[in-house]
Amino acid sequence: MSSVSSSPFSASQRKTGEALPANVVSCNGSHTSKEQKTHTQPVRHYHRIQEVRKEQGTALRTVARNMKIGIKRARYEELPTTNLDVEALVRWQKVLKVPLDEMLEESHEILSRPVQERAQLVRMMKTVVSMQETAETAPLQRMVQTLIDQFIELMPELAEVTSWHSLGQRRSLKEYGRVALEPISTRFLEEG
Question: Are residues 64 and 122 in the same domain?
Fold first, then answer.
């Protein structure tokens, strides 16, 4: 006897386990649609602190030091999914020097023009300060110093900007420094 299927779905759909439409219930009464099985809520983003900090080219370590908190705490607070209180938001606002409303997650628009211009100036200043550190001739040093003075005239807070990191890639928190991998003897300090 051959069994005739009254299912509106093709045999290949039934064999491969392809998801059935949401309103179809399987033999055991459970919904078989993948959409019905997963009830994950979309992740809510509360702020754009991390995005603003990266746009400005400011290191997380620098921000943490300026706020007088640990780097782990700063890393946690800058996550968009962290729901910060107003006091923490104001702290970040003061360190990043951007309007508070620019840090809040309201839309997926790019930063406002003044904030973008500030971020560009900070990145340019970092480059000029890096040039100053590597300038070998006196005329080049004078020209770079003139550029720095002009940037500071445009935006006085740029006087605090440091150069780009020139020592290569920084270690992660899980990596040990060279001194831990290659310890030195302190016996010479004890002698004499």
Answer: no
pLDDT in tens, 56-101: 888 999 999 999 999 999 999 999 889 888 899 999 989 988 888 7
Number of separate domains in the chain: 2
Contacts 24+ apart (CB under 8 A), 117-123: 118/56, 118/155, 119/52, 119/55, 119/56, 119/57, 121/151, 121/154, 121/155, 121/158, 122/56, 122/57, 122/58, 122/158, 122/161, 123/56, 123/57
Report helix, strand or coil for 138: helix
Count of C-beta atoms within a 10 Å radius of residue 2:
3
By residue range, what is the domain housing residue 102? Answer: 42-109
Considering the domain architecture, whether residues 73 and 101 belong to the same structural domain is answered as yes
Question: pTM of the entire structure?
Answer: 0.44
Q: Which CATH number belongs to the domain containing residue 70 in this structure?
A: 1.10.260.40
Read off the tokens for 8: 């509106």
